Amino acid sequence: MSTFLPVDEQLDLLEKGAAEIIRVSDLRERLEESRKTGRPLRIKAGFDPTAPDLHLGHTVLMRKLRHFQQLGHTVIFLIGDSTALIGDPTGRNVTRKPLTREEIDRNAETYKTQVFKILDEKLTEVRYNSEWLDKLGYAGMIGLSAKVTLSQMLDRKEFLTRFRAEQDISLHELLYPLAQGYDSVALESDVELGGTDQKFNLLMGRELQRDYGQKPQIVLMTPILEGLDGVQKMSKSLNNAIGINEPPAEMYGKLMSISDELMWKYWVFLTDLRQSEIDQMHADVAAGKLHPMEVKKKLARTITAGFHGEAAAQSADENWARMFQQKETAENLEEIAIAYADIAGLDGSNQIRLPKLLVAMGLAASNAEANRKIAEKAVKIDGETAESLLIPAAAPPARLMVRLGKRAKVAVINS
Predict the structure, then answer these.
(1) Which of 325, 350, 377 is the last residue of a domain?
(2) Model-level pTM?
(3) What's the total number of domains in the chain?
(4) Do 14 and 88 have their domain in common?
């Protein structure tokens, strides 16, 4: 009797957060076959060790690997130690600076320790693509290169853009999609995971598997996760990333700083909660049954606990509450005295005009800048993200802790 869940139940988890699957019908068929034969599918995702530390954006694929692993399939964490010598041209308008073998090996060791914060080490097959790529040799690489034309390679967006702009394209960069595709042949993968920006490389694996007489792999792509700013992709170079090795308090605090809109994406891509459960939470917030702040705190606890344990997450939660909700740190902040009449709403409805408040406190240079920061969800009042230009006002005298980005002050509002 099959030990695998019914296919519909498997797909309920596997399709969560997927941007595109090529093709869903093929995946369903492969899962049905797996149930009948009892053979787990071989699931591959490759990571080039180009930097020593991983951030939460990298874990989107790892979490999807975890979902396959939870369903009983064979997960292959592929370290691209040979492809890293080329450098993935995805998203690049210039040739990457090559890494040394020593740098690659050092980074690869850190990857192995970090990935098992998500995957089950005992059930994970760790492979290095140097196992087969380094053995291809001259004749093997020529044979592999003969399977693709130059015009096919120039269909790739990055290459075509650089070609039209008369920018350099090094010949070794053209080998990268071939090398990644050959990984799928060597591993006989049933499914390969990758970001949407990897589509060209992922499809190359399907083509090469056909050439080698294998059944072409299913491709499952996940979106590129936005960083803390909610705009650009998560990247340490853009200073909008959360590293998976960051201390619990820092990780928790950064997660609490994201916008309410981005929070829902993080629930989808960075947790194991099923989509139906996330949808129910979203509906409860929309109906006023659940406060967005509580949902965000639960998200921060969930993700922090996943990397540091429940006790550390609980401690980070309590420390954050003391700092930002109970305002124990407010005594150390600069206090700005403001007349209520200067910032009061125009209709006398006991509301404060937030742009006026930000300008009066010196946190914004103008009303226009203040409006923009409020729209970007960058302003917090007593630890909660400001959602509108008008905020409720207690009868003066009153104190408000106002934060814009990393700057915070206390408004002392007098009558």
Answers:
(1) 325
(2) 0.70
(3) 3
(4) yes
Amino acid at 263: M
Q: What is the CATH number of the domain that holds 122?
A: 3.40.50.620
Q: What are residue 249's phi and psi, to 5 degrees? A: -65, -40
Handedness of CA 160, 161, 167, 168 (dihedral sign): negative
Give the pLDDT of the chain (415 residues) as one tens digit per residue: 458 999 999 998 899 889 999 999 999 999 999 999 999 999 999 988 777 678 898 889 899 999 999 999 999 999 988 888 886 665 555 555 667 778 888 887 877 778 888 899 999 999 999 999 999 999 998 998 898 888 888 877 777 787 788 887 777 788 888 999 999 999 999 999 998 888 888 999 999 999 999 999 999 999 889 998 888 888 877 788 898 888 998 899 999 989 999 999 999 999 988 888 999 999 999 988 888 989 999 999 999 999 999 999 999 898 888 766 554 454 567 788 898 888 887 765 678 889 999 999 989 888 888 998 998 888 988 778 888 888 877 666 777 888 887 788 888 888 7
- The domain in which residue 403 lies consists of 330-414
Does residue 232 fall inside a structural domain? Answer: no
Contact indicator for 10, 201 with CB cutoff of 8 Å? no
User: What's 270's domain CATH number?
Assistant: 1.10.240.10
Pairing of the two strands 379-381 and 218-222: unpaired
- Is residue 34, in this structure, part of any structural domain at all? yes
Task: Say whether both 285 and 216 belong to one domain.
Answer: no
Residue that is last in its domain, among 225, 257, 287:
225
Task: Please indicate, yes or no, whether residues 29 and 115 belong to a single structural domain of this protein.
Answer: yes
Which tokens is 338 given?
A: 């403001």
